[in-house]
Design goal:
Length: about 350
């Protein structure tokens, strides 16, 4: 629905969709001719206001529920339940409001039938502006959903599903189009300091159990290593979260799976789905081989994203949900997106 398709009288943003657009669906006059009033419904949003400088940065709707179609990069077009935020600016200080029903209907029309990608979102944002050609010159949309991705076990032949939270945000400001994607990777982080201290305790236990000057036999050491005394201390590890926002370069594919794979390979300890004993053992080995502070994890992800030519900007926030402390350890890195301010990745509006 473009501005040419809209009712001749702009819709009131507080009215229901049935009131605003029911006459189009039934091809009947609205209000009905036998109604007590035969006049067009009043539109107070179109009224002028006597303020001198009251333009609005962003105005619209948040949390609209609708299905979307999304290809995460494997060719499987999934239908997902999404919540959608739609906004335009109100550049005219003399106009009271925008036409919210037009934003809703345009989003419903585009997102229900076309895959969410740069082309679809660019077309939708241009339609937002056409429908508000006399009111707005900026448009923005954000789509929140979960994407199911099939993941293989570390060693066994089993597979399982992981639901990755995703937010796709697009903005059209003047002639500049931005496309960002947010996602989250959950992984395990073994504390390097705790690992070193645990090794020292094991050394001390070995020194107590085997006398100096009496070389122990291979069999005795082998048996000791498999006992509780051979594991006199264990390092602490915690579930950790990497929140990542990337801004794609023009014409670069919005490949979610490739992005997740790149991040998880850099960390090497992503949480698992289907797990047999051999998979759990492999996970424990990966943790021992990859101890990391939150600073280490942030640097690993930054190097991985820096190597991707399809990403022109990013912001990473890692959070290690401590098992030793009651507080969390957090680190942030980025390139061409702000990393100052509160410890999160909500950069607000463009």
């Amino acid at each position: 629905m473009t501005s040419a398709d809209a009712p001749s009288t702009p819709a009131h943003p507080g009215s229901s969709l049935r009131e605003m657009d029911g006459h189009q669906a039934t091809n009947a006059p609205w209000p009905p001719r036998n109604h007590a009033s035969s006049f067009a419904a009043p539109d107070v949003a179109a009224e002028t206001v006597p303020h001198g400088d009251d333009a609005i940065d962003w105005v619209g709707m948040q949390g609209i529920e609708m299905p979307i179609l999304f290809d995460a990069g494997d060719g499987d077009l999934q239908r997902c339940h999404a919540r959608v935020d739609v906004f335009v600016n109100l550049m005219r200080p003399d106009r009271r409001g925008i036409h919210m029903s037009r934003l809703y209907l345009l989003a419903n029309q585009h997102l229900g039938t076309e895959p969410v990608d740069a082309g679809t979102l660019g077309s939708l944002l241009r339609a937002f502006l056409r429908s508000h050609h006399d009111l707005a010159d900026r448009a923005r949309i954000r789509i929140h959903f979960e994407q199911l991705v099939r993941r293989k076990a570390l060693r066994s032949d089993h597979h399982g599903w992981r639901a990755y939270p995703v937010s796709v945000e697009a903005a059209l400001i003047g002639d500049v189009f931005h496309l960002d994607l947010d996602t989250q990777v959950v992984y395990s982080s073994t504390c390097p300091a705790s690992l070193a201290l645990s090794r020292q305790v094991v050394q001390q236990q070995f020194a107590a159990d085997f006398r100096t000057g009496e070389p122990p036999s291979h069999a005795a050491v082998f048996e000791w290593l498999g006992s509780a005394r051979g594991m006199a201390a264990t390092p602490h590890a915690q579930r950790s979260v990497a929140q990542v926002r990337v801004r794609f370069a023009p014409r670069a594919p919005m490949n979610l799976i490739a992005l997740i794979d790149r991040i998880e390979r850099s960390l090497r300890t992503a949480v698992q789905t289907a797990v047999k004993r051999e998979d759990e053992q492999a996970f424990a080995q990966a943790n021992a081989e990859n101890p990391m502070f939150c600073e280490d994890a942030a640097r690993r992800i930054r190097r991985a994203l820096d190597a991707d030519d399809g990403i022109e900007a990013f912001h990473v926030r890692v959070e290690h949900q401590e098992s030793l402390h009651a507080h969390d350890a957090v680190a942030q890195v980025g390139r061409n997106l702000p990393v100052s301010g509160p410890a999160d990745i909500d950069h607000g509006f463009f």
